[in-house]
Design a protein that fits this description.
The complex is a heterodimer of chains A (337) and B (315). By secondary structure, chain A is an alpha/beta fold. Chain A is built from 13 helices and 14 strands. Chain B has 315 residues and is an alpha/beta fold. The longest helix of chain B has 24 residues. The chains are: A alpha/beta (337), B alpha/beta (315). The structure holds thiamine diphosphate (TPP).
Chain lengths: 337, 315
């Protein structure tokens, strides 16, 4: 009898990453809100406190700024802490420590020291939670030199990029998305990778259109590409994975081939990640190679509403991306239903 | 208190049936601080709350319909369906806003107090928050700021011992939070938050001092929530086991304690009490029924409610 492959979900894969780090690197510890509760962090930390002790898996008072700064301090003294903010929104109370302290530390002191802190924040939208529990804000943080920004869209990346983030000597913001937790995959053995050499990845190949996204949007792009393929449109799909520093090489190469790009992002439109992707591409691609103007699909520039009908129209869907992809390619419109 | 209890039980039932989907943080068992403090709020005062503020809204005179429509995301809700349970506003009754980011409205209340001081009409600001909020830097900055500015602010900490799944003993070196007021030289009082009479007594004293221009005051009202951190369940949602404590605290029900006391004084008999409950149920059922028939916000509301002048950008 053939054995069924063992698949692991995105949330469980994060847990695998934590387990590996805590087991094999004594300098790793984790601190933040909700670490002893399933409610905040889903299945991504289950039982780690009993396995590794509550000295290394620390649940905290409601003190985002203090905890982030304390982790930074420990990082400067030889530890590799992972601070957890169960929602990106709560992390904003710690922005000074992330943006003005951690991200600046190395350069400000002449490159002599490093601040190997990993800040993990969870994107947790929807569910009628409204404006203050739905932000993702990757565009903001990707703007900050010195801060690496990582957004995995697959279970394997969720595990391996977490490990790479923690082992990186730089401060890293690692954003995972609750909407991806159900995604399952057969995981390869763990590999310690160098985050500095990780970057965007081509996850599907086609000649008609380039779809670029990160995190949940990369997942939407993959689904949309499959649907577009059924309509005779073949897409290159690029999963950004590491938003900062952004390596646009792959996107540029892809658009030179396809002549069309649709950038998808689950953050706001203005000054956003999708705009950055498009700008990086059009700066490098000869306009004569472009077969259509670049387009972006993002959130509208409005805070998240709670009311269900509004919330449903707020987030980009596969349907919407397919529609925009079809419009961009300009052909086969009638075959779309 | 009875109306708050009945409204929140209704919301809890609707959460358990999956009809209400927005996160609802119920204050069942904690009705006395809201009612006790609201009794001293007058026209022109500015009140701020947090994620667990249905009681504050209702105690200030908010309509059950406005709240029940809001938790259903209806256009007739107090925040026109844009906010849900955690974002309530009712300016005519003095409620200037409740938000779920812990501690966020504490400095805002100080600013409202400052504005009241500049207005010079003896009005004040009230800031409701939980024990968890005293762990945030914003709380300490605000207390200090209010103290040096002599801002007319009533800080009301409803200490229910929990911040989500963590008991205060796991978060602070002391289970009482008045020491912070002491540190910031803000005069304070601590009272049984399940005793409406006690709450009213400390509030009156504090409000009189604030209105007399003495600057901010701090109240710690000790109470307990009967339901879980969020939703209708008692606490399984966050894995907290506290059955014995909960049983004991239910014996300290603020409503029945008051009813028994009034009965002893001969000012409220069983019949009257029963009619209060019946009336509250009738009001709530009717408000709920109306709200279910109300409409959702129009699609364009997403973009038209962002800026005062022009529309926000589509995607
Ligand atoms: C800045 C921030 N951090 C964390 C949270 C998650 N959170 C929501 S309510 C809450 C508990 C706060 O406890 P407390 O202030 O005591 O209020 P209670 O829930 O007991 O009424 C927490 C941690 C949040 N909403 N905002």
């Amino acid at each position: 009898m053939k054995q069924a492959p063992v698949t692991t979900g995105y949330g469980a894969a994060i847990r695998d990453g934590f387990e590996y780090l805590l087991a094999s690197h004594p300098s790793v510890f984790t601190i933040g809100q909700g670490l002893w509760s399933p409610w905040y962090v889903g299945n991504s930390m289950t039982d780690l406190d009993s396995q590794f002790g509550r000295e290394r898996v620390i649940d905290t008072p409601v003190s985002e700024l203090g905890c982030t700064g304390a982790a930074l301090g420990a990082a400067l003294c030889g530890y590799r802490p992972i601070v957890i903010h169960p929602r990106v929104d709560f992390m904003l109370l710690a922005v000074d420590q992330i943006v003005t302290q951690a991200a600046k530390w190395r350069s400000m002191f002449g490159g002599q020291v490093s601040a190997p802190i990993t800040i993990r924040a969870i994107i947790n939208r929807g569910g009628e939670q409204g404006a203050q529990h739905s932000q993702s804000l990757q565009s903001w943080f990707a703007h900050i030199p010195g801060l690496r920004v990582v957004m995995p869209s697959t279970p394997t990346d969720a595990r391996d990029l977490l490990i790479a983030s923690v082992l990186s000597d730089d401060p890293v913001l690692y954003l995972d998305d609750r909407w991806l937790y159900g995604l399952e995959e057969e995981l390869p053995p763990i590999e310690e990778r160098n985050l500095a050499s990780e970057g965007p990845r081509l996850t599907r190949s086609g000649q008609d259109l380039t779809l670029v996204g990160c995190s949940y949007s990369a997942h939407l792009c993959r689904e949309a590409a499959a649907r577009l393929s059924a309509n005779g449109i073949e897409c290159d799909v690029i999963d950004i994975r590491v938003l900062n520093p952004l390596d646009a090489t792959l996107m540029i190469k892809s658009v030179r081939k396809t002549g069309r790009v649709l950038a998808v992002d689950g953050d706001w439109r203005s000054c956003g990640m999708a705009a950055e992707v498009i700008a990086s591409i059009v700066e490098a691609v000869d306009p004569r190679l472009m077969r259509a103007s670049p387009r972006r699909v993002t959130l509208p520039d409005a805070p998240a509403p709670t009311s269900n009908p509004l919330e449903r129209s707020y987030y980009p869907t596969v349907d919407y991306i397919v529609q925009r992809g079809l419009a961009l390619v300009g052909a086969q419109q009638e075959t779309f239903e | 208190m009875i109306l708050i209890r009945v409204v929140e039980e209704k919301i809890g039932d609707m959460v358990s049936q999956g009809v209400v989907k927005c996160p609802c943080h119920l204050a069942i068992g904690q009705e006395a601080p809201a009612v006790g403090v609201a009794g001293f709020v007058r026209q022109g005062d500015r009140v701020f709350g947090a994620h667990r503020s249905h009681g504050h809204y209702l105690a200030l005179g908010g309509s059950p319909h406005g709240l029940l429509a809001e938790v259903q995301g209806k256009d007739t809700g107090v925040s026109r369906g844009m906010g849900g349970s955690m974002h309530l506003i009712d300016i005519p009754n003095g409620l200037f806003g409740t938000v779920p980011i812990v501690g966020a409205t504490i400095p805002i209340a100080v600013g409202a107090g400052l504005a009241a001081k500049m207005d010079g009409r003896g009005e004040m600001a009230v800031s409701f928050f939980g024990d968890g909020a005293t762990e945030e830097g914003a709380f300490h900055e605000s207390m200090n700021l209010a103290a040096v500015l002599k801002a007319p602010v009533l800080f009301v900490c409803e200490n229910n011992f929990f911040s989500s799944h963590l008991h205060i003993n796991l978060r602070q070196p002391d289970s009482s939070v008045c020491r912070y007021a002491e540190a910031h030289r803000v005069a304070w009082a601590r009272a049984d938050g399940n005793d409406l009479v006690a709450v009213r007594a400390v509030t009156k004293e504090a409000v009189d001092a604030i209105r007399a221009g003495e600057g901010p005051r701090f109240l710690e009202l000790v109470t307990y929530r009967w339901r879980g951190h969020v939703g209708h369940r008692e606490d399984e949602d966050v894995g907290v086991k506290r059955k014995d404590d909960l049983t004991r605290w239910k014996l300290r029900d603020p409503i029945s304690r008051l009813a028994v006391a009034l009965d002893k004084l001969g000012t409220l008999n069983r019949q009257q009490l029963k009619s209060y409950w019946t009336d509250a149920h009738a009001v709530v059922e009717e408000a709920w029924a109306t709200a279910t028939h109300d409409g959702y916000p129009p699609a364009k509301a997403l973009l038209t409610r962002v800026y005062s002048g022009t529309m926000a950008q589509k995607r």
